From TrEMBL:
<keyword id="KW-0325">Glycoprotein</keyword>
<dbReference type="InterPro" id="IPR037674">
    <property type="entry name" value="PIG-G_N"/>
</dbReference>
<feature type="transmembrane region" description="Helical">
    <location>
        <begin position="676"/>
        <end position="693"/>
    </location>
</feature>
<keyword id="KW-1133">Transmembrane helix</keyword>
<feature type="transmembrane region" description="Helical">
    <location>
        <begin position="738"/>
        <end position="754"/>
    </location>
</feature>
<feature type="transmembrane region" description="Helical">
    <location>
        <begin position="7"/>
        <end position="28"/>
    </location>
</feature>
<keyword id="KW-0812">Transmembrane</keyword>
<dbReference type="GO" id="GO:0051267">
    <property type="term" value="F:CP2 mannose-ethanolamine phosphotransferase activity"/>
</dbReference>
<dbReference type="InterPro" id="IPR039527">
    <property type="entry name" value="PIGG/GPI7"/>
</dbReference>
<feature type="transmembrane region" description="Helical">
    <location>
        <begin position="937"/>
        <end position="957"/>
    </location>
</feature>
<keyword id="KW-0472">Membrane</keyword>
<dbReference type="InterPro" id="IPR002591">
    <property type="entry name" value="Phosphodiest/P_Trfase"/>
</dbReference>
<dbReference type="InterPro" id="IPR045687">
    <property type="entry name" value="PIGG/GPI7_C"/>
</dbReference>
<dbReference type="Pfam" id="PF19316">
    <property type="entry name" value="PIGO_PIGG"/>
</dbReference>
<feature type="transmembrane region" description="Helical">
    <location>
        <begin position="864"/>
        <end position="889"/>
    </location>
</feature>
<protein>
    <submittedName>
        <fullName>Phosphatidylinositol glycan anchor biosynthesis class G (EMM blood group)</fullName>
    </submittedName>
</protein>
<dbReference type="GO" id="GO:0005789">
    <property type="term" value="C:endoplasmic reticulum membrane"/>
</dbReference>
Length: 966
């Protein structure tokens, strides 16, 4: 069955979407949820256990606190309070922690350490999934049982000021609120002043019960300049003064005989060494939790803070306010908060918490009876009933007290065990859907690889043996096997699977399609491996012979080996090591090819055999031997120079997961005492960038590029990253909005000039030189934009990128006559390595969101997302664009043999940048969710499929255009 390449590509892309959707349907974790649709009510609470008689009353102990103030400081790391610098950063808070009536803890947050999932964890007590990272951009209303809803239902009056994420999560829950935009990270002053300006009037009033304050300035400073910035201490001192003001106001308003207040200081997440967050490093997950109340004992000496889970705050606040615990809460009450209450009340609080956890355990774990915590709770509940019987009889002996303390200990152990068991159930994966989606995608990938030589041939058609596959015996055997597997999984699965809920008609269609794909793959693989084999009396398509050089083997084995390595989480965490190794090996292999060309391959007369292909711009040189000699030594120097550049860039930014906290050259350059060195380095890099980029541009673009790069340095000087010679290091820092917009004007001008030349070459005149110049001008505009987005210490990365591209294009790819396949894969390898040279990793915490607001005075979603994505994937994008420009400028060279073994893989990797960015952005950030299969491995497969389909479209269009011309 002959199918056109365009139809075949459409087929692959359409069904790829189904495979991806099926995998993601099973991959995104379903959070631990209660089976009850309604929310918890006071009337549903269990009675106090009482053995030997009728159940006791279901009364609740008296609430512990009358009024609660929650001061949440975004990105507050625990060492900012409890560390060696705590007395300098937050002196009053540190005094209260050491000497006041307080309890202090290190609260561990679960990844993803992003604001919206952390707010959900603090209010529901549940563990959000990674899908909430995406939902963080536009938070929908929170419908599940939560502390805010319970408080509002109980008649508590809630006032909120701060991050507007709370307003979106809890609409119509607050008596009074004022939300501030959380995404405009360039603002770290007004965003907090908008919260503090309400404090004086609110603290004087008595018409509220819960006050929530969410300060964002510290988080924004971290994104802008990191945790060691000079801006950190003033901001923490500001937060400390606010805490002192709140504490003093609560002390003055405390009435004799009434319930005490509770002041909570906490952070939603921490801050990495680069100032970002989202991952699972210690600085990101460790946050301070300080509970201040006259109900607690006053401390006499410094005590090291204990360690709790962040979700433990939810049941603690619920019981402290006399509210039911949220149904989906996996935390357990913090024991120190209850220590001043009576023993009966303490046991009752723990019993209520244990009952809620045991109910959630029943809904979440099929064999919940086998859980040690569940059994411990039942034993403690019985012992509690025996203690209650003696207590109700009026027994006041010391034996009763000791018995109560033993029951208390049993409860605490049971609660910790049940909470731990629930915490391990981060989500329920639909493994059946995941495996089916993986198999489906890999079938499409193999089909694409086997059909690519035919699809790219002159006929631009693929011969798919569909009819023979449908009439073969293996097809029916595969249908029976897959149907049996489906029945077996659906009848024995302990949890529901998505595929099992589909109708049998759809399931049979999927089984038949997968079986057909399998038979087609076997048939195509057979005729590819055995070209002379006859199938049903006809000679199969043989194609052309594949001949692989040593470099081809390296490129093919390296790319496939990297893809397979992503099935292990360790290789994903430290993926940069794989690319560094492959890049070094590639440089050595290229150096070997250069030596072979210039020292071993001689013609009969002893002269080097040059295979310079004719082109329109080829002109005879007056000194051919001198030029050949200089080219030879420059070609020999290029691979070692590339190796040296890569080694220096590795030291510039630490990346990965295990050693990302170690100091690097970037930290050294960004320190205040080395600002002059950074200034000189940035100026030198910008000059070199201009010299490397302007060569292929028109004079208008050259002038615009020079002014734009001057604007880049001015912007960095405005934000106090670098210095002009006449500036002092202590000058006032600004946002650099005017300077950044000045650069944007020249970027748009260069892009407009390049686009105009490109359109003229396509519409008005078929001028290949004009087309090439237009592409290079667009590329130079992109370089100017990236130089603005890159931090000052990362400009050497951009400079080395351009320098390596220039040297490799001039002395390696052209002189050694590497074909499009080899050149494409090399570009892909370099692009991936430069992604990590920038300091990026597969951890969401390394995404620098501050660049999304360069030149903006307020939060605008579209440009912020575009600039952040462009900065993150600048390395792969620049190399992909350079590939397009280079291949376009070399189009007059001799055509590459289609049957080359690496050509299939090369076109798979020749990806339009937009498609690449979308795929990687969506799927790269799931580093810390691992089941049987690696999502990173799926991402590589989808990357192959999508890029191959796009390339097939372009190939078909090019062939059609050539045919119409001839």
């Amino acid at each position: 069955m002959k199918v056109r390449s365009s139809v075949f590509a459409s087929f692959i892309l359409i069904f790829e979407v189904f495979g991806i959707a099926l995998f993601l349907r099973g991959f995104f974790p379903v959070p631990v949820k209660s089976s009850l649709s309604s929310k918890s009510k006071l009337s549903d609470l269990p009675a106090e256990p009482l053995s030997g008689s009728s159940p006791n009353s279901s009364r609740l102990p008296q609430p512990l606190f009358k009024r609660v103030v929650i001061m949440l400081v975004d990105a507050l790391r625990e060492d900012f309070v409890f560390g060696p610098s705590g007395r300098m950063y937050m002196p009053y808070t540190r005094h209260v922690v050491e000497r006041g009536s307080s309890h202090s803890f290190v609260a561990k947050a679960r990844p993803p350490t992003v604001t919206m999932p952390r707010i959900k964890a603090l209010t529901t007590g549940s563990i959000p999934g990674f899908i909430d990272v995406v939902m963080n951009l536009n938070s929908p209303a929170l419908l599940e049982d939560n502390l805010i809803w319970q408080a509002k239902t109980a008649g508590k009056r809630i006032v909120f000021y701060g991050d507007d994420t709370w307003v979106r999560l809890f609409p119509k829950h607050f008596m009074e609120y004022d939300g501030t935009t959380s995404f405009f990270v360039s603002d770290y002053t007004e965003v907090d002043n908008n919260v503090t300006r309400h404090l004086d009037s609110t603290l004087k009033r008595d018409d509220w019960d819960i006050l929530i304050l969410h300060y964002l300035g510290l988080d924004h400073i971290g994104h802008i300049s990191g945790p060691h910035s000079s801006l950190i201490q003033p901001k923490l001192l500001e937060m400390d003064d606010i805490l002192k003001k709140i504490h003093s106001a609560l002390i003055l308003k405390e009435a004799e005989g009434s319930l005490p207040y509770l002041l909570v200081l906490c952070g939603d997440h921490g801050m990495s060494e680069t100032g970002s967050h989202g991952g699972s490093s210690e600085p990101e997950v460790n946050t301070p939790l300080v509970l201040i109340s006259p109900a607690f004992k006053r401390k006499g000496k410094l005590s090291s803070p204990g360690v709790v889970e962040q979700v433990d705050l939810t049941p603690t606040l619920a019981l402290g306010l006399g509210l039911p615990i949220s149904q989906n809460s996996v935390g357990h009450v913090i024991p120190g908060v209850l220590e001043e209450t009576s023993l009966r009340d303490q046991l009752r609080f723990l019993h209520l918490n244990g009952h809620q956890l045991s109910c959630l355990l029943k809904d979440s774990i099929p064999n919940y009876e086998k859980e040690a915590g569940f059994e411990q709770f039942r034993v403690a509940e019985k012992a509690h009933g025996s203690w209650m019987k003696l207590y109700m009889e009026g027994n006041t002996s010391e034996v009763l007290t000791n018995m109560g303390k033993k029951v208390l200990k049993q409860y605490l152990e049971a609660l910790a065990a049940m909470s731990s068991a629930l915490g391990k159930q981060l989500g329920k994966y639909d493994m059946y859907s995941m495996i089916a989606g993986m198999v489906f995608v890999f079938q499409l990938l193999l089909l694409l690889l086997l059909a690519m030589p035919e699809a790219l041939s002159g006929a631009a058609a693929v011969d798919l043996p569909v009819l023979s596959a449908l009439l073969s015996l293996p097809f029916y055997l595969m249908c029976l096997l897959l149907a049996s597997v489906h029945v077996l999984v659906c009848t024995s699965a302990e949890s529901s699977c998505y595929l099992c809920s589909l109708s049998w008609g759809l399931v049979f269609a999927a089984v038949a399609f997968s079986s057909t794909m399998f038979c087609i793959l076997v048939s195509m693989a057979t005729r590819r491996l055995f070209p002379g084999l006859k199938i049903h009396g006809k000679v199969s398509f043989s194609g052309s012979e594949w001949s692989l050089s040593e470099l081809d083997v390296l490129l093919l084995a390296g790319t496939i080996g990297h893809t397979l390595s992503l099935a292990a989480s360790s290789f994903v965490e430290e993926e940069h090591q794989t690319w560094y190794f492959l890049l070094n090996t590639l440089c050595l292999a290229v150096f070997q090819d250069v030596c072979r060309k210039y020292f071993r391959e001689k013609n009969g007369s002893g002269e080097e055999e040059e295979h310079i292909l004719p082109s329109k711009d080829c002109r005879p040189s007056a000194h051919p031997k001198a030029e050949i000699c200089s080219e030879k030594w420059l070609a020999l120097a290029t691979p070692p120079f590339t190796l040296a550049c890569c080694r220096l860039l590795r030291s510039l930014n630490q990346t990965g997961v295990q050693w990302a906290h170690l100091p690097d050259v970037g930290h050294w350059l960004n320190s205040s005492e080395h600002k002059m060195v950074l200034s000189l380095l940035a100026a030198f890099c910008l000059v070199l960038i201009y010299l490397l980029v302007q060569r292929r541009c028109s004079w208008v673009s050259k002038v615009a590029l020079a002014l734009g790069l001057l604007g880049v340095y001015s912007y960095r000087a405005a934000v106090d990253n670098v210095l002009f010679p006449w500036q002092h290091s202590g000058h006032t820092m600004s946002k650099g909005t005017v300077e950044a917009r000045f650069v944007y004007v020249f970027v748009l001008g260069i892009l407009f000039t390049g686009t105009k030349d490109l359109l003229r070459s396509q519409i008005i005149t078929a001028d290949a030189k004009l087309k090439s110049r237009g592409l290079w001008e667009i590329y130079s505009g992109l370089v100017l934009l990236v130089s603005l987005l890159f931090r000052a210490h990362n400009l050497p990365v951009l400079c080395c990128c351009l320098l390596i591209q220039t040297l490799m294009a001039q002395f390696i790819w052209k002189k050694l006559h590497y074909d499009a396949a080899q050149t494409t894969i090399m570009h892909y390898w370099f692009g991936q390595a430069f992604f990590y040279f920038q300091g990026n990793s597969n951890n969401i915490a390394t995404v620098d969101i501050s660049v999304g607001f360069i030149g903006l005075e307020s939060y605008v979603e579209a440009p912020a997302i575009f600039l952040t994505a462009l900065n993150t994937y600048a390395g792969p994008l620049l190399w992909a664009c350079h590939l397009v420009c280079y291949l376009s400028s070399e189009r007059d060279r001799s055509p590459v043999a289609v049957g080359h073994g690496c050509y299939c893989l090369a076109l798979l990797r020749s990806v339009p940048a937009a498609a690449y960015i979308v795929l990687v952005t969506v799927l790269r950030y799931h580093l810390f969710i691992w089941s049987v299969f690696s999502p990173k491995l799926l991402y590589e497969s989808m990357h192959l499929l999508l890029t191959a389909g796009v390339c097939l479209f372009f190939n078909t269009m090019e062939q059609s255009h050539s045919s119409s011309k001839s």
